[in-house]
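FAQ: What does a multi-protein file look like?

Like this. Sequence, then tokens, then the next protein.
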Amino acid sequence: MVTSGAYPLRRTPTQDRANRQVERILDAACAEVVERGYDAASTSGIAKRAEIAVGSVYRYFPDKRSLIQAIERRNQARYTDAVSERLADVTSWRAAVDVTLDTFREMHRTDPGFKAVVLSGLGDPELEAKPGEFDDQHAGEFAELLAGRFGARDSRDFRLAVTLSITMGEALAHLADRLSADEAEYVLDQGRPVLYNLLAPHLPA
């Protein structure tokens, strides 16, 4: 496989029209999995939703698993872009923690790609196995932000604290989304100070 942009493909699209077709395939795969579930979703159904021939799906993706893995990589790229844009205006490191957590929750509620990966029970194992990807990537970017803009003292322990806060924040968001509104508010109110407390020793008072 080759990699085009955020995810691996069987063949690299060389024209804008082909790039748009790949995005349409991924959008159709999200809709198919969300509506029918991963097991019932079919490549032919995805092709029908994308209004293309099934062979066009196989041109870029060998199977459903590779589609889900590509969706997950696209999710990560979208999340990174959204967080980066929103962090531009924050004025405190605690607000930066809130923005990161709230953006994650919002995208899981509004972007079908995030729901499709959760419903499939699949993900790209390389995203969690390769250094520098998945949580490591977000943690590294967030650590640089805290150090550069808010005066965090960079160290191994600081980097570990950031990675832990990112991982715990995502778990907190998943839990909140499974609860009623009142219960979600409670766990978020209890959970946010835990994230702050992890990072506070490494930042100016």
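And here is the next protein:
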Amino acid sequence: MKTNLLHIKNMVCPRCIEAVRTLFEQAGYTPTDVTLGQVQLDENTPVDPSAVAPLLREAGFDVIMGRADQLTEQIKSALIEYLEHLRTARMPLTTSAFLTDRFAATYSHLSKVFSRTANLTIEKYLIRMKIERVKEMLSYNEMTLSEIAEKMRYSSGQHLSNQFRQVTGRSVSEFRRDLLPRRLSLDQLG
């Protein structure tokens, strides 16, 4: 079955968008729009998903066939935007308000689908994302823990420190002492 819209797993950043666009162009397809998690092709060049799946897999991506998997990947992409919203909004929305606005669906529905397909709750996935962003900021050694906590909307440095230990199994100071701290890419979070 050929289609003009493909949903792609593991697209987490602008470089992923460019990589997927290049893959499709090199394979002879004409993408008209490539966004996090989706490729829209020119109406004259539909594609059989199974034909491009091996190319995508080789580059670390994958075609998503099921509707629940597609929604889960869309939620993951929206959560990346939500992290930026948290960082920049004067009065940020709650996670549930942000997602229900984005998807015009109840948070309960989104949460059930996400939990079932990702084997992880939205909240735990968001916490993992936040901790990876905290690791990035810690590795630059430009801000104090309190400044990072404020930037990431934690109630205190202690709250951030406790959550960091829960997620990583290490304290913030242990992480800072590590010469080669281990960070995860967003597609490895769940």
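Q: Is there any per-entry metadata?
A: Some entries carry free-text notes. For the entry above: The chain has a mean pLDDT of 90.
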